[in-house]
Amino acid sequence: MRFKKKQMIYIFSFVFMCLSVPAFAKLVPTYREIHSQLGVDAIVIQVSDLSKLSLVLNDPDTLKKYGSFSSLQNSLPACQHLVFAMNAGMYHRDREPVGLYIEANQRRTALNTQDGYGNFFLQPNGVLAWNDREAIIKTTSEFTKRAFHTKYATQSGPMLVINGDIHSKFLADSDSLKIRNAVGVKDNQLYFVITRNRVNFYALARLFKDELQIDNALYLDGSISSLYWAAQQRNDRLTELGPLLAWIDPAQCHFKNLH
What we know:
Layout: H1 5-27, E1 30-35, E2 41-47, E3 53-56, H2 69-75, E4 81-87, E5 101-103, E6 106-109, E7 126-130, E8 135-139, H3 140-145, E9 152-156, E10 159-162, E11 165-166, E12 180-186, E13 189-195, H4 201-211, E14 216-222, E15 227-229, E16 234-235, E17 244-249, H5 251-258
Antiparallel strand pairs: 1-2, 2-13, 3-17, 4-15, 4-17, 5-6, 5-9, 7-8, 7-9, 10-11, 10-14, 12-13, 12-14, 15-16
């Protein structure tokens, strides 16, 4: 029996899709809700496939800052799908990053080792960095001493958990309560957390250390903390954002190219 070329392509596409679905299902970010012993209600997004996780700030076509998850989604080719996104660290009024920012191997902002006022400068602060195979969270001083092939990086502060220890300056009874978001790393997977209720630093750090069993976690921001989760049609629009973390699925682009 002879098959036309187009028929063979469709058969190959179907087989490829069937074989890929189980593997892909294991790699897409996962969503869960947790309640900590200290009363923190939070959403945890676990990212295993680092190759699809990126940092973005400006639309390459317009050179304007995305500012929102909707702008990012609308800028993507039709075959790409924004699965998860979150604000990616602290920024100035012009929405430029306060600290180190590396996007697709290009450094846009240098490492910030200055002293100053505010959460970013509550030492130690730290850096989240990753490439397609590995992710790390290190204090700023540790990051400067480690040779790491960085594809993406964002600097923020303070560190919440440092090598298994909660930041020494956090107070359990602090009345500084905000919706907050942060990130931790364990077994080369990233855990992005956004709280559903207002919490202090200590309670958030305990969530990472005790509930998630994570030894290194970095605070990203508070008050403006925002989440995009396509599966539940969540698209926070609280304010104009700076750098964005984005997990983009290009799977349909592969099938499109087969036709």
